[in-house]
User: Which sequence fits this backbone?
């Protein structure tokens, strides 16, 4: 194992969750810093890292986390705060770099935003990203700064905006800014650069602009996604659309909150392309993935087994969200029964046993599906295993006393799954139930949203019925 202790800040974030496994693969000892470490509960790597709780705006909270650290990754932004976030970002980065200097940190690696710093119309959030890099360089700790634009990968905020808008709208109406230039980079390549910088410490501050091989427009990224998804889309660009209006629309259609949408859509007013190709010369071994290949990889892995389950780390007992191309309904409940009892109930669902809640609805749905040419209610086998049939589902994954995930074969404008996970404790068990639906185009969005009020009632009733049956 290497002796270099690595600190990753912003551990609950998108990039950190992809960087940390790569660091662990290379046998680096990893320490993570998070304001709310309880949100790391669902991470597969959690047990393999050292976790510190702290807020970078408060130096006294991060000093201990920086002790004995060789390299620190600064992967923090504060756009979710809303008004005043730019001031907070500068203050936080100054706190961090000066505390890192006192702790003897040898290297800071920072991921910022890609844009022309001389652009008079540069969006506040992009200028803030660059000013954060400048603030980090105020200490004697060498800083390697990477500047990236649109990051292509499932879960990336910019990619999810593209994905959900292109899926939902046959005609995309947007600002004339959509014709501005973008040079997207695959998330895998972002991680490649962040890893390569670990072994490229030359005791000097360096700024690298990173992007893929393709320069295109923001609007064309949506059209390219739609083409790969098999959807026909048109772009109409209109001048004068208010920024606040676009932010509201983005919040309604995508997983991106209004405050972040406001900042990101504002960033479309500027080109986001690489002007200095020094990164390619310094790191020649990195094989760039273009937007089409990155998007194809995302669509190929459009399944619950590939998702970053951000909702599982929270203390909430339910969540109803849009995430990584899915509509998700998540519920968690405590049951005064053993894991074996719950598992027996789950593996007896369907067929001649029926369903423990609103069985007539299951029968009606099966009949309607059969009329539309689907499989309908096909019954089930007595002992479930992978690929077993459970009415209009098929078992995708099953683990004794732990997991059952069913893949829907209903004729719907999208792809659906229903999953249960069991966690056993001394005197009780915790059951989580998650419904996933990946809509395909506008029909998929209409299908889910029209049924949404009834689905919420149904999924709540289903998990409560499983609880009652398990306890009795």
Assistant:
């Amino acid at each position: 194992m290497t002796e270099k202790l690595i600190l990753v800040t912003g551990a609950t974030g998108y990039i950190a969750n992809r960087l940390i496994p790569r660091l662990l693969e290379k046998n680096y000892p990893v320490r993570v810093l998070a304001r709310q470490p309880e949100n790391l509960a669902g991470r597969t790597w959690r047990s393999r890292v050292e976790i510190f709780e702290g807020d970078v705006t408060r130096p006294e909270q991060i000093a201990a986390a920086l002790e004995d650290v060789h390299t620190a990754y600064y992967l923090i932004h504060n756009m979710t705060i809303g008004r005043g976030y730019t001031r907070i970002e500068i203050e936080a980065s100054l706190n961090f770099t000066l505390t890192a200097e006192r702790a003897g940190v040898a290297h800071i690696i920072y991921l910022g935003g890609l844009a022309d710093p001389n652009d008079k119309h540069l969006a506040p959030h992009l200028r803030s990203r660059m000013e954060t890099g400048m603030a980090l360089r105020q200490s004697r700790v060498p800083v390697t700064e990477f500047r990236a634009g649109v990051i292509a990968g499932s879960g990336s905020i910019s990619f999810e905006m593209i994905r959900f808008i292109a899926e939902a709208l046959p005609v995309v109406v947007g600002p004339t800014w959509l014709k501005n230039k973008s040079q997207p980079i695959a998330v895998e390549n972002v991680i490649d650069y962040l890893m390569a910088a670990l072994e490229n410490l030359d005791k000097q501050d360096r700024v690298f602009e990173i992007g893929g091989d393709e320069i295109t427009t923001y609007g064309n990224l949506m059209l390219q996604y739609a083409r790969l998804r098999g959807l026909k889309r048109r772009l109409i660009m209109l001048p004068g659309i208010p920024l606040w209006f676009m932010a509201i629309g983005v919040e309604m259609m995508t997983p991106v909150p209004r405050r972040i949408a406001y900042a990101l859509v504002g960033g479309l007013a500027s080109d986001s392309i690489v002007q200095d190709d020094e990164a390619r010369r310094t790191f020649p071994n990195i094989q760039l993935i273009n937007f089409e290949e990155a998007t194809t990889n995302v669509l190929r892995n459009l399944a619950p087994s590939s998702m970053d389950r951000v909702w599982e780390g929270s203390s909430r007992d339910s969540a109803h969200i849009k995430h990584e191309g899915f509509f998700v309904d998540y519920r968690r409940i405590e049951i005064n029964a053993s894991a074996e009892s719950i598992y027996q109930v789950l593996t007896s669902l369907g067929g001649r046993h029926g369903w423990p809640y609103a069985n007539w609805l299951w029968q009606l749905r099966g009949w309607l599906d059969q009329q539309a040419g689907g499989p309908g209610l096909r019954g089930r086998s007595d002992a479930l295993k992978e690929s077993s049939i459970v009415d209009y589902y098929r078992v995708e994954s099953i683990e004794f006393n732990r997991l059952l995930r069913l893949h829907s074969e209903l004729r719907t404008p999208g792809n659906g799954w229903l999953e249960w996970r069991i966690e056993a404790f001394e005197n009780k068990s915790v059951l989580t139930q998650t419904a996933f639906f990946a809509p395909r185009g506008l029909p998929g969005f209409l299908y889910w949203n029209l049924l949404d009020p009834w689905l919420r009632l149904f999924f709540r009733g289903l998990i409560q019925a499983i609880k009652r049956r398990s306890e009795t």
Q: What stands out?
A: The first strand starts at residue 6 and ends at 9. Residues 441-471 form the longest helix (31 residues). The chain has two domains: 6-300, 304-471. The chain has 14 helices and 20 strands.
